[in-house]
Amino acid sequence: MKSRARLLGHSVHQMLVVFPLGLLGAAVIFDIVGIVSGSAGWFAISFWMMAAGLVGAALAAPFGLIDFIAIPRGTRAKRIGAMHGIGNVAVVLLFLFSWLGREARAVAPGAEALILSFSGIALVMVTAWLGGELVSRLGVGVDEGAGLDAPSSLAHKRSTSMASKRV
């Protein structure tokens, strides 16, 4: 099922989602480095990484919703997509509340803020797997003509699958 929101032939959601995943994951890593090293400067880096990750999530989400709406009702993909989307809303809320419980200056966050971000990254592992299930297993956001020898998405003619090329 081809993505409804595309840029140069590729799913916009799939292009943008790497930013919140990477930034929020890095924020948690910097929190861990801050805890282990005892250097509060890492927490300031985590604060700003989290802020950028939340902005990235806000940019990626509408494109995911556009693709979700296009999935036919009653399918496994619709159920997985719903879990993926609802789970990611929960991830954003966990990180948002963690971010709100912090300060921009180099100050160690409270235990609540750390628990929220660590819970967020644990949940994002589940929602990322669900996203992978949607794309890799169920073909959501994948061009119908995808294949090992498909032409570039920038090509003007419609791609065809390898199966249709067999005689």
Give short descriptive properties of this protein.
single chain; mainly alpha; two-stranded antiparallel sheet
The fraction of residues in strands falls at under 5%
User: What about the largest sheet?
Assistant: 2 strands, antiparallel
Q: What is the H/E order? A: EEHHHHHH
The secondary structure category is mainly alpha
**Shape, principal axes of CA atoms:** elongated
Distance between the termini: 25 Å
Q: Provide the gyration radius in Å.
A: 19 Å
Could you name the ranges where pLDDT drops below 50 across 5 or more consecutive residues?
159-164
Put simply, the count of helices is 6
Strand count: 2
Average pLDDT score: 87
Strand order of the largest sheet: 1-2
Number of domains: 1
Q: Provide the helix percentage.
A: 55-70%
Any chance you could write out the topology, listing elements then pairs?
Layout: E1 6-7, E2 10-11, H1 12-16, H2 18-37, H3 41-70, H4 76-100, H5 111-137, H6 162-165
Helix pairs in contact: 2-3, 2-5, 3-4, 4-5
Structure description:
It is built from six helices and two strands. It is an all-alpha fold and 167 residues long. It has one domain. Strands 1-2 form a two-stranded antiparallel sheet. A hairpin with a 2-residue loop joins β1 (6-7) and β2.
Nutshell version of this structure?
By secondary structure, this protein is an all-alpha fold. Helices cover 66% and strands 2% of the residues.
